[in-house]
Write a structure and sequence with these properties.
By secondary structure, the chain is of the alpha/beta class. It folds into two domains: 156 residues, FAD/NAD(P)-binding domain, CATH 3.50.50; 203 residues, FAD/NAD(P)-binding domain (3-Layer(bba) Sandwich). The protein is 30% helix and 26% strand. The chain is built from eleven helices and 28 strands. Strands 6-3-2-10-22-21 form a six-stranded mixed β-sheet, with helices on one face. Helix 1 packs parallel to helix 9.
Length: 466
């Protein structure tokens, strides 16, 4: 298919001679870069396949009905589109020509002087993509919607089912992956089920509610300190979550999970299965590796230089989950979390502006703010650079940190008020069942071109699509 070069006028005529910076991805890193570049003498184009910034760490709260979609997503045009030098284009970048300095999206090629790639990461099923429809991941809003829809539909069916074993199956959830996302989702789902069954359903019994957390690792939250993992595990078990660790998913089928552990094969039956076990970098990583020869790590992340540029291509920089940045004191790559991504985006934007002025900036230094995970109402675990906090104090720190990272003030206020309401009343405000079965899986994103209809001359009612 022929590709046409897209030439857009700058927002203002004076910007025509300014360096053109194209930012691909409006996540934590890309959005922070745009904030720093706003109202600076550079022309910025932000390209994203969604028209909003998504606060992924709170997707589990959408899946469990604590908050709604709009509480964790903010329109990009409202966040940075007001800056006179920033233009936002909707589309998915599918190819990059480093030699011509062009990106391809929506069937067109678009030029750049500097390219900042912050396209994030997705879910991986370790070569078993046929499992995706059976166990939705939790990376985009539609995934969280699908998990919530499946769970609530199972409870609604259970309310009308006289068969006890069928009810047991419908009231069972399996969460694959015992990292922060899996633990947060499991803890929130068991609390939702117990609360809903006691207060809102008349035929269901709370003791039949079951959430099973599965992973091949030997402890939950394996990247955190062992004592924090132990505290999280104890809390989850007290809440009613069954831990099946040291077990690998051997096979998935509709309503069934086959595990392989030390004792051999074991089968679990559950109406709702969720997947949080694997993360892969955006496919642009491997594409750029082919185009530039830049090495990638096992997860498909680009191995970048100390300034986040690609070897031999100083005009291209990879940020966030797309890069493997190992220029750290201990040589370990930075973790794929919001904190490092925000710091990367800010530093790269400031470094770019400094170079355009003929100046230099100090080397990038990541400020480790620690890691944390909320396990249930009023309970979280936090590792603050070696200082461990659990329980209520951990939850307060978790809430403050997440509110601070949310880029939109309106969302901060909405989330805080909903958290307080839920804690005071134990009521969840976003338990709507919408959409058709599996409607939220395989969702197409990006720009959809509208068709134009016209009447042929001399005809009555004949329509031609153009």
């Amino acid at each position: 298919m022929e590709r046409f070069f897209l030439e857009l006028d700058p927002p203002e005529e004076a910007m025509r001679a300014w360096p053109h910076v194209v930012v691909v991805g409006g996540g934590f890193a890309g959005l922070k870069a745009c904030h720093v570049l706003a109202r600076q003498p550079v022309r910025v184009t932000l390209i994203d396949k969604r028209n909003f910034n998504l606060f992924q760490p709170l997707l589990y709260q959408v899946a469990s009905g604590l908050v709604s979609e709009a509480d964790v997503a903010s329109p990009l045009r409202q966040m940075v589109g007001h800056a006179p030098n920033i233009q936002i284009l909707l589309g998915e970048v599918v190819d990059i020509d480093p030699d011509a300095r062009q990106v391809e999206f929506n069937g067109q090629r678009y030029g750049y002087d500097h390219l900042l790639l912050a396209t994030g990461s997705g879910s991986t099923y370790f070569g078993r993509e046929d499992w995706r429809p059976l166990a939705p991941p939790m990376k985009i809003l539609e995934h969280a919607d699908e998990i919530r829809r499946r769970l609530l539909m199972a409870l609604e069916e259970a309310e009308q089912t006289p068969d006890l074993e069928r009810r047991r199956f419908l009231q069972t959830v399996v969460v694959v992956g015992a990292g922060p996302a899996g633990c947060e989702l499991a803890g929130s789902l068991i609390e939702l089920m117990h609360r809903a069954v006691r207060r809102d359903f008349k035929q269901l019994r709370p003791e039949l509610c079951k959430v099973v957390l599965v992973d091949v690792v030997d402890r939950v939250l394996p990247t955190m300190a062992p004592e924090l993992s132990a505290d999280a595990g104890r809390y989850l078990e007290r809440a009613g979550v069954e831990l099946m660790l040291g077990a690998k998913v051997e096979e998935l089928a509709a309503g069934r999970v086959t595990l392989r552990g030390l004792s051999g094969l074991r089968e679990l039956e559950a109406a709702t299965i969720c997947w949080t076990a694997g993360v892969r970098a955006s496919r642009l990583g491997r594409l750029l590796a082919e185009r530039t020869g830049c090495p990638v790590d096992r997860g498909g992340r680009l191995v970048v230089e100390p300034d986040f540029s690609l070897p031999g291509h100083p005009e291209i920089r990879a940020l966030g989950d797309l890069c493997a940045y190992a220029h750290t004191p201990d040589g370990k790559p930075l973790p794929g979390m919001a904190g490092p991504a925000v710091q990367m985006g800010g530093w790269v934007a400031r470094d770019l502006l400094a170079r355009l002025r003929g100046e230099t900036t100090p080397p990038f230094r990541w400020l480790d703010l620690g890691s944390m995970a909320v396990i249930g109402p009023w309970h979280a675990v936090a590792d603050l650079r070696g200082r461990h906090v659990t329980g209520l104090a951990g939850w307060v720190l978790w809430a403050l940190a997440h509110l601070a990272f949310i880029p939109d003030t309106e969302n901060r206020i909405a989330l805080f008020s909903k958290w307080m309401w839920q804690i005071a009343t134990r009521q969840r405000t976003a338990l709507l069942i919408t959409g058709r079965p599996d409607q939220h899986l395989g969702v197409d994103v990006g720009l959809f071109r509208a068709e134009r209809c016209r009447l042929e001359p001399g005809t009555a009612g004949a329509i031609t699509l153009t």
